[in-house]
TrEMBL record:
Residues 62-81, 91-101 have a biased composition (Low complexity). SUPFAM superfamilies: ARM repeat. This is Uncharacterized protein. Residues 57-101 are annotated as: Disordered. The keyword Repeat applies. It comes from Malassezia equina. GO terms for biological process: nuclear-transcribed mRNA catabolic process, deadenylation-dependent decay. Keywords: Repeat. It comes from the Eukaryota.
Length: 503
């Protein structure tokens, strides 16, 4: 027991030392970076001051009279006591330039002190070509241009690298092989593509290998012929689904090959896979040129979901699939799937995931489909309106079904079909649906200005008699509505609508 405790304490001390060492190393690196930036700033200021002081003394003798002079020492520039020494600038090749203090040419400094922050004047035109040649040969303080990428090796063991990539967490190896495809010689590229053919499926299902396969497919689409028949297998894997998406994006016949492979498999098993949803979205949104192939796929999807539409719509993945079907017009008015959804409308409209499909059908559906949904909404107004999820379908219908639905819905709200409440004076009194909807928090978007077609819209567009009835109903139940936040806002909204009607 003591030995185990000692070992634990020793490991804890080692961990603390490692954390402290990492902190010290980080602090040292930051300080080194700060010091390096300060040195660069000091060097830039030094060259600026040197250039400004040298320019104070214009040459007093012609350039030709001092061509054979030698570079003067520090004592020869004594008059400039506050100027840094020219010798401290390092070994400069100024053998072809004048060297006396009075006639020192500054053109040899242009390439040294050149900076974006301090633009320098052009050298005088009277200076000869030899001066410019000497200045061009001087060293420069800025960084040289980046060197070209290193040459790729001529002989690489491709098979060993491919097998090492599979199942390993080595993104640098995948990047290296992709570099061979992009910048390698034709022989190296063909060798890599040839060795990939035997390892395509393991590479497709690998975390970093599928990136190599996608780049190879973009460079050489004929490689996709070796994946024929494996689309249903790849679509079940998250990385393989990305490769299938890449093949669907090619315009060389690979998308037709993928669609043929999907038609040959059991669609019921792959339609609702979370990994396959992006693939099906791409399939539904692609404008296929072969109408027969498109018709076969539509019939296959309908047969796979026959009798399962309600359960599919009320699931998360199935709802996303059906939304894509509706959005890209794969569901038509008289399809069996649409009829099955309308037969179980109440179960779908009041469901967490099913209501999204109803909203998509209202937004992207045909006028016949919208009319059918509006009819079912009016038949089940009291249930759908008071549902937290069904109220979203009501909002979409108010937006997409036009004025006829607004008028009919306002009429249903004013009907005395609400729950029966006890009265102090006379037994029981029925309550209109409008009052219950105004008192419900999830019904507030239908009535207030949050909705695209709020109660103000209903009040202003409704018949004057209908508008007066709605306002009277709200005023009659004002004591009940003032008890919660939603009802108080509805009362205020009706007061504004009445003021607008009077004006």
């Amino acid at each position: 027991m003591t030995q185990a405790l000692t070992e634990v304490l020793r490991l804890e001390a080692i961990r603390h030392l490692e954390e402290r060492w990492e902190g010290m190393e980080k602090w040292v690196n930051e300080r080194m970076r700060v010091v390096e930036m300060q040195l660069m700033h000091m060097e830039r200021q030094f060259w600026k001051r040197s250039h400004s002081m040298v320019l104070r003394g214009p040459p007093s003798t012609p350039l030709s009279s001092v061509e054979t002079s030698s570079v003067s020492s520090r004592s020869s520039i004594a008059p400039y006591s506050d100027t840094p020494s020219i010798e401290s600038l390092g070994p400069l090749d100024c053998s072809d330039t004048p060297s006396t203090p009075d006639s020192l040419s500054t053109s040899c400094l242009y390439s040294i002190v050149e900076d974006k922050e301090s633009p320098l004047p052009e050298p005088p035109a009277s200076q000869g070509a030899e001066t410019h040649m000497a200045a061009a040969d001087l060293p420069r303080i800025w960084a040289p241009p980046p060197s070209p990428p290193a040459a790729l090796p001529d002989h690489v063991n491709i098979e060993v690298k491919l097998r090492a990539l599979i199942g390993s967490d080595r993104p640098e190896l995948s990047a290296e092989l992709q570099r061979f495809l992009k910048h390698g010689s034709p022989a190296l590229r063909s060798s890599l593509l040839e060795h990939m053919q035997a390892l395509l499926i393991p590479l497709v299902q690998d975390r970093f290998g599928h990136f190599l396969v996608m780049r190879a497919l973009r460079l050489e689409p004929s490689l996709g012929a070796h994946l024929r028949g494996f689309s249903s297998t790849m679509i079940r894997h998250p990385y393989g689904a990305q490769v299938v998406l890449c093949m669907l994006g090619q315009e060389t016949g690979l998308h037709d090959q993928v669609l043929t492979d999907l038609l040959a498999c059991h669609l019921r098993d792959v339609l609702l896979l979370p990994e396959a949803l992006p693939v099906w979205r791409k399939v539904f949104s692609t404008p296929w040129e072969d109408p027969s192939l498109l018709r076969r796929l539509r019939d296959a999807v309908s047969d796979a979901l026959q009798g399962q539409w309600v359960a599919t719509v009320n699931s998360e993945d199935g709802s996303a699939l059906c939304q894509s079907l509706v959005e890209h017009h794969w569901l038509r008015d008289h399809d069996s799937g649409v009829q099955e959804l309308l037969d179980h409308f109440l179960d779908i409209a009041c469901h967490q995931w099913g209501v999204w499909v109803i909203q998509h059908m209202l937004e992207h559906g045909t006028p016949i489909m919208r009319a059918a949904i509006a009819h079912h909404l009016l038949q089940t107004t009291s249930i759908v309106s008071l549902s937290s999820y069904g109220s979203k379908a009501i909002q979409s219908a108010l937006h997409w079904c036009g004025a006829p639905f607004q008028q009919q819905y306002a009429e249903r709200l004013c009907q005395l079909s609400g729950p029966i409440r006890a009265s102090r004076t006379s037994g029981t009194v029925p309550r209109p649906l409008l009052i219950d909807l105004a008192a419900a928090q999830h019904g507030l978007p239908i009535i207030t200005e949050v909705c695209a077609y709020p109660l103000t819209q209903l009040l202003t567009t409704a018949h004057p008699m209908r508008r007066s009835l709605m306002i009277r109903l709200v005023e009659r139940h004002a004591s009940f509505l003032q008890g919660n936040r939603s009802g108080a806002r509805v009362c205020l909204l009706c007061d504004r609508a009445r003021a607008m009607a009077r004006s």
